[in-house]
Amino acid sequence: MLGVLLVLLVVLLIVNYVFGKREFLSPAFLFTLGFLVSVVWAYAFKDKWGLQLHIETFWVIFGGVTLFSIVAAIVNIFFTKGSLTIERKLDDHYETSVSRTGGMIVIGIMLLSIIYTIIEVQRIAPSASIMESIYEYRMQTTNITTDNASSLVLPKLLALLRNFTDAAGYFFAYILASDLFKKKRINVIVLVITILSLINGMLLGSRTGAFMLLLSFMIFLYIMYRASSQWKKHLSWKMLGLIALFFVIVIFTFQSFAGILGREVDSFSKANYLAIYFGAEIKNLDTFIQAHQFPIRPQGTFGAQTFLEFNRTFGKFFGSHATVILDLPFQNINGLSLGNVYTTFYAFLYDFGYKGVVVLVMLMSSVSQFIFGKVRQFSRQGDISIYALIYGRIAVCLILSFFSDKFYEGIFAITFIKTVIWWIILRWVFVRHTVEVQK
């Protein structure tokens, strides 16, 4: 069944590419691509992991990806038919201006966030060095329980500072991409802000935030390239090759970054290490489906895994007094660690069963395609599109859906609402708008 799934996902990716008008950034293409890459890795290691894909897992993955593609196509059709062209009587001029004073204020806030984070991490997980503390903190949060959950919560002020730093990273990565594409130059202050956001994202021991920011930066560049020709000009093979090379470099430095953050990774070969991150999710999901009846809901909380952050924030208002934690047990096969990630479908099945897969996939596809449609309509030169910033995050979540529930975990979350608010404030501060009447 795994081989059949591999072939069908290849066909589905081609269909999404052809009928999506050769659009690499469309939600359906990205969602399918992520699962195809994972299945390729899983197929390469199927004998080592003893992976015999069961029919239930086959239909969850193929059915989920197919349903996502169909819903996205339908939303795209209605979105295209409903789009309007508005004639302007005024010329709107926008210019992004990052002054030295404004940039230094942002840098100052980011440095405060970094220093405060280091202090708190060392307080929670004291160790001989910063890197060891980061590793110990990461291990505690990975093995979080109701007993230690409260002790790992960061102070509210620090959480706010980190949220600003994360939001500013994406905002200024957009400006960095714009300067590179339009002006062929780099603003040093903007570059420093982006790098500080990357560093801040890794201080809690995870590389995912930094990886998502880098990937979003590439997406912003792609959006600017396509929008410059009203989405008519496609990438050349040379550009595609450079993008592919960038991803290869990032992927093959993944293990090295883990070592920098204090993780013990020397016992893994490069291939085995990457296989755990890119393919083991398929084996883990298959094991999970065979071992359980759905939905599970042991905590008695609606959407405990899918809507984790909302439950942690608002659960008390709906009668839930339990500390909601991620139930992601580590898996092992033949003495080999396969990690504790199970694809995005794990959370849906856990909370709502097979019906939940259908409903949540449809919602995810609809929202993603709608936002992407808004991105394609944006054409104000010099302005910063909030929709493009949002889709920069959504697109990465869709690509990483083979890994875990990044979409509902990262988009349907109160922290993301705060992030969008920060983007609006930053846009108000750093984008100048003038209007000239046409003669």
User: If you average the pLDDT, what whole number results?
Assistant: 84
Radius of gyration: 22 Å
Low-confidence stretches: 84-91
Helix run count: 18
How many strands, what sense, and barrel or not for the largest sheet? 2 strands, antiparallel
Instruction: Report how far the terminal alpha carbons are from each other.
Output: 66 Å
Reading side by side through the largest sheet, how are the strands ordered? 1-4
Give the SSE string. Answer: HHHHEHHHHHHHHHHEEHHHHE
The outline comes out as globular
Structural class: mainly alpha
Number of DSSP strand runs: 4
Q: Share of helix among residues?
A: 55-70%
Percentage of residues in strands: under 5%
Q: Count up the domains.
A: 1
Structure description:
The chain is mainly alpha-helical. The strands form two sheets. It has a two-stranded antiparallel ribbon. It has a two-stranded antiparallel sheet with strand order 2-3. Residues 84-91 have low confidence and may be disordered. The protein has 18 helices and four strands. The longest helix has 33 residues, at 345-377. Helix 5 crosses helix 6 (130-142). The protein has helices at residues 2-19, 27-44, 46-49, 55-82, 100-124, 130-142, 156-183, 188-202, 208-227, 237-252, 254-260, 270-278, 280-291, 308-314, 345-377, 386-399, 406-410, 414-430; strands spanning 90-96, 332-333, 336-337, 431-437. The N and C termini lie far apart (66 Å). It has one domain (1-434).
List the helices and strands and how they pair.
Elements: H1 2-19, H2 27-44, H3 46-49, H4 55-82, E1 90-96, H5 100-124, H6 130-142, H7 156-183, H8 188-202, H9 208-227, H10 237-252, H11 254-260, H12 270-278, H13 280-291, H14 308-314, E2 332-333, E3 336-337, H15 345-377, H16 386-399, H17 406-410, H18 414-430, E4 431-437
Helix pairs in contact: 1-2, 1-4, 2-4, 2-13, 2-16, 4-15, 5-6, 5-7, 5-8, 7-8, 7-9, 7-18, 8-9, 9-16, 15-16
